[in-house]
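SAMPLE LOG
Freezer: B-3
Tube label: C17
Construct: single chain, 73 aa
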Amino acid sequence: MTKLTAAYGDDNFQMISMNQHLFRELAARDDLAIALDSDSLTLQCKVVHQLSHVNRRLELLRLSINDELYHER
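STRUCTURE (predicted):
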């Protein structure tokens, strides 16, 4: 008959659960970095898009001012 470790000796369930807990925390940190990395790319695209709208508005404003200068009186 074979002897089972849990019935006839010390078990190490606490150590296993602690190791799994630490591993989950490390894995979550890696996932968080990846998640934030994709958010920064989205944010950069939005900023570039908004700046292009500002440039268009400034060009329209510049055209309207220059157009007023060349009207015949």
